[in-house]
Write a structure and sequence with these properties.
The chain is an alpha/beta fold. 49% of the residues lie in helices and 13% in strands. Helix 2 (40-47) links the parallel strand 2 (27-29) and strand 3 (51-53).
């Protein structure tokens, strides 16, 4: 059994969910929330088993949320005081202990005078869960901004079409599936290495690599993540690279069977470490949606050195859609 995991993000956006659900029938996800009560879409996808969330322990989540809240409270109080912030973050970038506001203020007063950090303090910054929490907060905020910009662009386009008398037929030609779409911000470009190291560390804590069977299949929508992993590793096998592959649209009745065949196709490639001789399943119907896929195999040696995953090889699958 090959475990399929979405990585290295602790938040999955609507666009990322659309992409992975086009290729995979279900996928494991490590969200940093107690449940999906505040996100109906993710809740629905979890009920349908498209997403299989592995939620954090209540005490772990409570701890990092308190730490993150303390930092944000401190940032609000000292907005604009970048000098003290940089001085504090230089030695202790993620507050691990004594994170109430009064304690943080005390750290600033003493820390800016002496540029010394104890061994315990240096160890304290190594908290993958806290880094992932900050990354999650950033990703959620950026998704909200992107959604607002898309609404503005849609409104602007509609007004322009009305002013110029552009027909709906011409507009449909411009938005035809398979044609290049607008650039989407890749969250994996921000703090790529830190995200990866933190995610692998947390994933090991959650035991997601402990299941029996073959190597895990890690699925990402971030080209930056895969590029970083390949550039920092040796002996990587480029097992599959398809620039255009037809996939089924959301409500297509043929989608489920194609996804099963597609996953079997990936399993054979991962196990044989080669795509030659393996038949790619075809989506031969009226669906117009197309995507891209790339699969890289990381042998045991490079993953041990790069991500501290001893005794295990991994397969990384990059998937994207063409709008």
């Amino acid at each position: 059994m090959i475990e399929t995991l979405f990585f290295p993000f602790s938040h999955i956006s609507k666009e990322q969910l659309k992409i992975v659900s086009a290729f995979f029938h279900n996928i494991t996800f490590l969200p940093l929330v107690a449940d999906f009560a505040e996100d109906p879409l993710l809740g629905q996808m979890a009920e349908k088993k498209v997403l299989q969330p592995v939620f954090p322990l209540a005490q772990d989540l409570g701890r990092v949320e308190n730490q993150a809240r303390s930092y944000l409270d401190w940032a609000k109080l000292h907005r604009g005081n970048e000098k003290n912030l940089k001085s504090l973050l230089k030695d202790q970038p993620y507050f691990m202990e004594d994170t109430d506001i009064s304690s943080i203020q005390s750290q600033i007063r003493s820390g800016t005078k002496k540029n010394k950090t104890s061994v315990d303090q240096k160890k304290a910054v190594q908290d993958p869960l806290l880094l992932l929490k900050f990354a999650q907060l950033s990703d959620v905020q950026n998704e909200g901004i992107e959604d607002e910009l898309k609404v503005l662009e849609k409104t602007r386009s509609l007004l322009f079409s009305e002013l110029t008398g552009e027909t709906s037929e011409k507009k449909n030609e411009k938005s035809r599936p398979g044609s290049p779409g607008p650039d989407t911000v890749d969250p994996g470009r921000r703090m790529t290495r830190e995200r990866l190291v933190a995610w692998f560390s947390y994933a090991r804590q959650k035991g997601v690599f402990d299941g029996p069977g073959g190597m895990p299949l890690l699925v990402t929508t971030s080209p930056a993540v895969l590029d970083y992993m390949v550039s920092g590793s040796e002996g990587v096998i480029n097992a599959l690279d398809i620039d255009s592959i037809k996939v089924h649209e959301k409500d297509c009745v043929n989608k489920g069977k194609w996804q099963q065949d597609f996953f079997q196709f990936l399993k054979e490639i991962i196990l044989s470490k080669n795509s030659s001789g393996v038949a790619l399943p075809q989506a031969d119907d009226t669906c117009l949606l197309c995507g891209q896929i790339k699969v890289c195999l990381f042998p045991e040696g490079c993953t041990k050195a790069f991500f501290n995953t001893p005794g295990q090889s991994i397969a990384v699958c990059l998937v994207q859609l063409k709008s």
